[in-house]
Amino acid sequence: MSPRRVPAESDAVGRQDRPLRITVDGEPVDGIAGQTLAGVLLAADRAAWRRGRSGAPRGVFCGIGVCFDCLVTVGDERDVRACRRRASDGDVVTTQTREPDAASRSHSEARSSKPRKGQKAQGNVKMPGAEER
Known about the structure:
single chain; seven-stranded mixed beta sheet; globular
């Protein structure tokens, strides 16, 4: 069995392909309507489109949406599983890394500056349940 698509002219089923084009990291990539984003990327010889924490390239691992190795950003939506999302003509796909972007960092910094249960709040604001020492 080949990982490549069967060319339309030699397809015994006689399918009627409708081409589509997505943009991946600013580069146009052609696909066929009905393919997943991962299918379009694999057919374009892109086996990896994300990097893990170690820097190792990641792409499709399970192909059924369980492992989350194929995460991409589609438009403004982060953490889209490429193996589960059907490609739509005009999709703008951005590859991801495990490093948070600036917005995520500022959000996590804001969360970490909040007092935890049992800690005294800074300033004049007192947290419910916080004890004076």
